[in-house]
Amino acid sequence: MSTPAMSILSNITKFVVNEGNGVKGLADLGLDTLPEHYIQPREERQCLISSNVEPEESIPIIDMDDPKVADSICDAAEKWGFFQIVNHGVPLRVLDNVKEATHRFFGLPAEDKIKYSKENSPTNSVRFGTSFSPKEEKALEWKDYLSLFYVSDDEAAQLWPTVCKDEALEFMRRSEYVIWRLLEALITRLNVKEIDETKEMLFMGSKRINLNYYPKCPNPELTVGVGRHSDVSTLTVLLQDDVGGLYVRKKDEDSWIHVAPISGSLVINIGDALQIMSNGRYKSIEHRVIANGSKNRVSVPIFVNPRPNEIIGPLPEVLESGEKPIYKQVLYSDYVKHFFRKAH
Ligand SMILES: COc1cc(/C=C/C(=O)SCCNC(=O)CCNC(=O)[C@H](O)C(C)(C)COP(=O)(O)OP(=O)(O)OC[C@H]2O[C@@H](n3cnc4c(N)ncnc43)[C@H](O)[C@@H]2OP(=O)(O)O)ccc1O
Ligand SMILES: O=C(O)CCC(=O)C(=O)O
Ligand SMILES: [Fe+2]
């Protein structure tokens, strides 16, 4: 006799991707084993092997009220590429609201979420999806997401999903000041004097906010939430909840460090665009998220990016002293398209 769950398992792509149920839909079926489509190659699950994890280590925690904050930010960007900030000025209420809004969006029925899939969305700026690049991946990732590209408040008011737009916009708005402070500190060490209009477009001319949902998983040890990748942003401001599971690669080593959640903090990481513009001084570090066997997890990254039509390359200010460029110039939107068109 065939059950509804058996017929779903016989066509996972239809149920998860095409019908908009996502991995949340699969998790809600109460499966007790992971569908084979999600089984990752052993080497991609390595960070679950304790010999590769450094339990004693943590990425730097930086107090934004500390008088030496600028040096701490630049040192962390050079040595770790990742750090957490506290006393950053984004109110706790704003952080809690956007996490709640994320749960609200993913709690919607599939027929409401599918309206925002690549095929149905009324705009390129709003996209609901699952895994990273399901068409390209040999094994899928245990994550659903809503990706919101910021064009203007008016566009967001009209087109972003009602259940989460105000909270996502408020998080973006209230993070602007800390993003400026971080970038000002980072560029000063690169010999750049100020963020004028041209530099503003180059460093932060576009922003995207993603709402990520990682449902409880029947066999977390066999899959990943997000596979190993580095972000293509200038920098990323990440809000995570208290579940944990984000791991960061230790620079130049094959070991991984857990980013333990700290209530009220934000995780900051340098992205590829800033690694390139700093001629390799600041590091865009690989990271990944494991799946969790007992809890649903949400996270909300704000990707601060160059404007898509910017040409990015090592900054002239960095090369002034005679340093040789180690990266070519590239059109930023080409770089991003390349990133999205292949699996992690
Ligand atoms: C989902 O799991 C993720 C996501 C991430 C994300 C990290 C980041 O977003 S970092 C910041 C990205 N930078 C920008 O958004 C910069 C500004 N945007 C652009 O330059 C453009 O919007 C564009 C992203 C390059 C898209 O340009 P467009 O001309 O519209 O090109 P398309 O042909 O439509 O798209 C190319 C290709 O990418 C896929 N794609 C586009 N947007 C997204 C998205 N938000 N999420 C997922 N995939 C996207 C699109 O479907 C196309 O693929 P095809 O297979 O259809 O060719 C980090 C980690 C994760 O796990
Ligand atoms: O969920 C997380 O903690 C990290 C997500 C991530 O790396 C991304 O969306 O780029
Ligand atoms: Fe990331």
Can you walk through the features of this model?
Its cofactor is L-ascorbate. It is a single chain. With 344 residues, the chain is an alpha+beta fold. The protein has a single domain (59-340), classed as B-lactam Antibiotic, Isopenicillin N Synthase, Chain (Jelly Rolls), CATH 2.60.120.330. The protein is built from twelve helices and 14 strands. It has helices at residues 4-10, 12-18, 22-28, 69-79, 92-106, 110-113, 153-159, 165-188, 197-204, 272-277, 316-319, 332-340, and strands spanning 61-63, 82-86, 126-130, 144-150, 206-214, 226-229, 235-240, 246-249, 256-258, 266-270, 287-289, 297-305, 311-312, 330-331. The strands form three sheets. The chain has an eight-stranded mixed sheet. It has a four-stranded antiparallel sheet with strand order 6-11-8-9, with no helix packed on it. Strand 1 (61-63), helix 4 (69-79) and strand 2 form a beta-alpha-beta unit. Helix 5 (92-106) crosses helix 8 (165-188). The protein is globular. Ligand LKXUNLCO binds at residues 118, 124, 127, 129, 132, 135, 145, 147, 149, 206, 208, 226, 229, 231-233, 303, 305, 308, 333, 336-337, 340-341.
